[in-house]
Amino acid sequence: MSAKKEHSSNRRNLPIGSRNFLGYHFRSEERVRTSKNLRLSPDDLERNTNLVALTRESKRCLRNLGAYKPLKDTFPQPWLPFPRSRRAAVLVALFVGRKGDLYVLLSKRATTLRSFAGDTSLPGGKMDPEDKSIEDTARREAFEEIGLPPDRNKVPLLCMLEPFYVEKQLLVTPVVVLVLDNTLQPILNAPEVTALFSHPLASFLSSTPPASIIRSEPELVELGDDGSGYRYHTSNDWDWDGPPVLLDPSENKLSKNGSANRNGKKRRSLSNSSLRTFKRSDENEVKASNGPVFRKRKFRMHQFLTGREAGGIKPVFGLTAAILIHTARAGYSPSPPALASPDFEVSAPDGASTSMRIAWAFYRPATSHRPNLLREALENEGLAGKVDWERVRKVAGVPDENAVFQKGASSAISGSRRLGQTNRIRSKL
């Protein structure tokens, strides 16, 4: 059998959704000339023939990602180190499509897995003791799951994004790379991954489905024009278990029956005197016994359809969607370091920021039903003495050093948490 026929036969034997792993790449053997730290430089975009056909938007995206640096106040910090045993990473692997657009590789998790079976995800997992860096973790996991080699010449680093927090008490760092070698073939680890496919990166900034979905599902897209049927992008807000927001008393005065006037829009932080015993006011508000009304903070979760749902592929959801939204915002920004603005609202009003959620995850008191694994890991790894708990407290939105651990304050926070348990949603890795 000729080499060409053998190659075609191998491609036919790949799982559905995997055959276009790198089929969009241009047939050039030239390898990218990387900088000393093996990050793709702006000059590489001009020199490498695989990247000649990039659209203007794609070139800007790669330049922005190649120059991207998380803000200085992003975690981890010297005053809040991350314990290795609670760290994880995912690989955001981009490649160039036929028309010069950027696509991201996504996989379908095996249905036999114990957690998040069948979900659409990015390759990734927890940091192993032998990993020298969080980048090594992402590359190792991608190699184990989909056979993407950890060769930094074939798959150079673009950037690393800010870490995300998931309810499994893990701190997940996205590592963004660009696949350049067009000779690579996927090797799926069947017990973990059953299919590999791609999705346009720019489509995570839009509520309009990409052209690929419009072509493959025209009837569904047409039915969804009135908002009653096919919706490419949706989002839901979920209760956060951290400190709530105090409604401004000048804008939200209590009426005689104890309900709050919702016309006011101003908010302010919790004060020490306000952390008392809480009572339920309505689905979204918690009332302190002395009068003030608090609103639970929310966090927003997004979902994007892939156009492959009829074939058993689930939508891009939760953590994966949040990471890809942030990647697209950083890449397609017209004026970095500011992020690009999608045509939908990314965060909930008064929502808990990622930094706030991470700080609270470290600061919150442990319970018999939910131990604080992050604090335990700090102790076990000898890092607890490096933590500045006062600074962590402020970022978490807790009013003073002892408030959360006082009886009344603990009741306030746990009362807010109980109201949100019925709406608890999983965050996936």
From TrEMBL:
<dbReference type="Pfam" id="PF00293">
    <property type="entry name" value="NUDIX"/>
</dbReference>
<feature type="domain" description="Nudix hydrolase">
    <location>
        <begin position="85"/>
        <end position="221"/>
    </location>
</feature>
<dbReference type="InterPro" id="IPR015797">
    <property type="entry name" value="NUDIX_hydrolase-like_dom_sf"/>
</dbReference>
<feature type="region of interest" description="Disordered">
    <location>
        <begin position="249"/>
        <end position="289"/>
    </location>
</feature>
<dbReference type="InterPro" id="IPR045121">
    <property type="entry name" value="CoAse"/>
</dbReference>
<protein>
    <submittedName>
        <fullName>NUDIX hydrolase domain-like protein</fullName>
    </submittedName>
</protein>
<dbReference type="InterPro" id="IPR000086">
    <property type="entry name" value="NUDIX_hydrolase_dom"/>
</dbReference>
